[in-house]
Write a structure and sequence with these properties.
The protein has 450 residues and is an alpha+beta fold. It contains nine helices and four strands; from the N terminus they run ααββααααββααα. It folds into two domains: 344 residues, Up-down Bundle (Outer membrane efflux proteins (OEP)); 76 residues, no CATH class. The chain has a four-stranded antiparallel beta sheet, with no helix packed on it.
């Protein structure tokens, strides 16, 4: 998201309500849920409102450098009495008259260093708000995606636990039959019963976990009983990044909203030093005024009505001499805050670079882990088949089959979770690098079942 595309432009508030009446039977894609979340998530809507507020605040700074025009008017009624302070005066005057006064004044700042620093600050603050909005958008993308795949992970876990429970139940029944006919010991029955009880407990936990994850997804996207679409092809995932990690780190230092916010914060703090220093400098304004006075029924000196017009132009110079040391301490305060902003910027660069490296290597490890789990799934299935065959001919005991079943279903759960983690980690890598946009959801959306 380029700053040049957002500076000094209002951001419309869009509300995605297409899915407001989605039923439990209708599954929604990741893009559809994200669109719904944009119109519902309070944090994201708050970021939009903050952007609009900062846009208005930035434009307020124009008042310090553009002309100011003021119109003033007044009317008064005067009861005038004049009497000389002498005995028996003969030239007393008594008049009752009205006076109307009006003026239009234009003031153009010519030299106001503090006003120009405030104007430049307004532009930087607006860009900072744009970066904050971009960060909120990226955060929403990751949060919705995480909640979406958390539900799918829990659904897979529950399905696999139920499948394992069914398999253990069949193995328990087989062990009981073998014990009854005397071909196996009671140990095999007890082992199978223990595994069945454990699977039953795991099923209860998995059902509760799925319930919680679905509630979290509903809260994230603002829907009731949101149902995410599943992956259409579990073996097809995203490709590994072709660029070196240093390329991603460099990109993050240039594009990350967190780094840009800190960098703009440093520039704003530097301008604040300029504003404080401007307290020692004079200001110069140009003024043009056009005023008029209308005397109705005369005035204090004349009984005839009159009009007076006074156009004028002037330069107003204001030179500060002493402000009780306040300006000096404002400069010291602003300088200290500039040092703080510089340290915050450096900290943001380091933290973003570290987050980018973590996500980059996490993505590579996740893709490798998926391949390893796929191989382990095949091996575990082969081991289970061999143990079942050995058990049927009396070579293996029941616990061997149970262990193989447990290993297979655990591998299946780990594989499903690893696939989903890869998709979310890919988004987190782009978020850390500052390049994440809603368009990045589409490749993931294409992997979902139609």
């Amino acid at each position: 998201m380029s700053l040049s595309r957002t500076v000094f432009r209002p951001l419309p508030l869009t509300a995605a309500v297409v899915l407001a009446f989605a039923t439990n039977a209708q599954a929604q894609s990741l893009v559809e849920m994200y669109d719904a979340a944009r119109g519902y998530d309070a944090g994201f809507i708050s970021a939009k409102a903050q952007f609009e507020a900062n846009l208005a605040r930035a434009n307020q700074s124009l008042g310090g450098i553009l002309p100011n025009i003021a119109l003033s008017a007044s009317a008064q009624r005067t009861d005038f009495h004049y009497r000389p302070d002498v005995p028996n005066p003969s030239n007393t005057v008594h008049r009752l008259y009205g006076t109307g006064i009006g003026a239009v004044t234009l003031t153009q700042p010519l030299y106001r260093p503090a006003a120009w620093a405030s104007y430049r600050q307004g532009g930087q603050q607006l860009q900072q708000a744009a970066a904050q909005y971009e960060a909120a958008e990226q955060d929403l993308l990751v949060r919705v995606s995480q909640a979406y795949f958390d539900v799918l992970t829990s659904e897979d876990s529950l399905a696999l636990v139920q499948a394992q429970k069914q398999a253990v139940s069949e193995q328990l029944a087989s062990a009981k039959r073998n014990f009854e006919v005397g071909t196996s010991t009671i140990t095999g029955v007890r082992d199978a019963q223990a595994r069945f009880d454990l699977a039953n407990a795991q099923e209860i936990a998995a059902e509760n976990d799925l319930r919680i994850k679905r509630l979290a997804l509903d809260l994230a996207v603002g829907l009731s009983n949101a149902k995410p679409k599943r992956l259409a092809n579990n073996t097809k995932l995203i490709a590994a990044p072709t660029e070196d990690v240093s390329v991603w780190v460099t990109q993050s230092e240039a594009s990350s909203p967190a780094v840009r916010q800190a960098q703009l914060g440093l520039e704003i703090a530097s301008l604040e030093v300029d504003k404080a220093t401007a307290g020692h400098k004079p200001t110069l304004d140009g003024q043009i005024a056009y005023s008029g006075i209308r005397n109705i029924d005369g005035s204090a000196t004349s009984g005839a009505a009159s009009r007076v017009f006074n156009p004028s132009a002037s330069l107003v110079l204001n030179v500060p001499l002493f402000a009780g040391f306040s300006t000096m301490y404002k400069v010291k305060e602003a300088s200290a805050l500039e040092d703080k902003a510089r340290s915050d910027y450096e900290n943001a660069r380091r933290a973003t670079a570290q987050a980018t490296r973590t996500a980059y290597f996490g993505l590579l490890a996740g893709l490798s882990q998926v391949k390893a789990y796929e191989a382990a799934e095949t091996s575990s299935q082969s081991a289970l088949d061999a143990n079942k065959l050995g058990y049927s001919v009396g070579v293996n005991i029941n616990i061997d089959v149970l262990n193989s079943q447990s290993q297979l279903y655990q591998t299946k759960r780990d594989l499903a979770k690893a696939r989903y983690d890869v998709l979310v980690t890919n988004l987190k890598l782009r978020q850390a690098a500052g390049t994440l946009t809603p368009a990045d959801l589409q490749p993931i959306n294409d992997l979902l079942a139609p």
